[in-house]
Fold:
Amino acid sequence: MKVLITGVAGFVGSNLLKLLLTNGCEVVGVDNFSFGFRRNIEPFLTNKKFTFYEKDLRDIESLTKIKCDVIVHLASQKIPRYSTALCTLEDNASMLKNVINKCKKDKIKLVFASTSDVYGKNPILPYHEESDLLLGPTTVKRWAYALSKIYAEQLIIANNQEFDLEFTIMRFFGSYGVNQNTTWWGGPQSVFIQNILEDKPIEIHGDGSQTRTFTYVADTVQGVEKCIFHQNSKNEIFNIASEPTQEITILNLAKLIWKLMKDDSSAPNIKMIPYSTFGKYEDVMRRVPSIDKIKQKLDYEPKFNLEQGLTEAIKWQSNLLAQPI
Structure:
């Protein structure tokens, strides 16, 4: 089977590329390096089973000549922290429409990366695939990302109903690890690690009581691989996450990373940043997954607890900082 990965030079894309090549798959990758890095795919460019195209998925012609059996669509604008809500909404919609048209024309399966952010502020935990999706007001731009993914899920399902598009939708929970972006694009853990490496205070937004359930990237891509190949993945939605018992407050995450990176018993250098400094901003106070469905249907089993995964992430990010620019 030939798998096309959009956003292949990104965090999840490059880790998925490595896994699929290791397991003997033929892979085609597309990226325009707007968020990904060439260094992430450099080790694989000489692999005869990997073909890379530097293309912009917003271009309607970007995929027309590429042959594949399945598309894993990872390329995406994120929560508009550094960009605009308009960019998030328009870019994600245009890329998806081009991918869907390719899948319908060539009659190939679409494996789509959605997000746990779609669950929004739903207070009923844990989140399972049929949970209500509860977003905040449209005047708060952080919800543009979740909205773009909800629209994408609806568009994919509508195309399945109208044109028999085969799909699998994946909702990622807090993926982190090797090749993660070291800014806020990569999540709080990557920024905390980077700040400690650079002897800067660990900046925590709000009071740090908000919780997340982080997933080491090896577990994330294990789940993606199962969504590509497992027969029970057809036309289904799956949470891909670590065990819900791994839920942790952001304050305790900062303390854990400090403990793993420092040999002494000193108190962590933490700076609290009030939400009010961000203008109109809303945070999700708890995010806890149910992974019962993916365990039962796809035999998924996460292998890394948070401390194990953070140890690997810290090692990789430390080595990255030591490399010459």
User: Anything to note?
Assistant: The longest helix spans residues 85-106. Residues 286 and 312 are 25 Å apart (CA to CA).
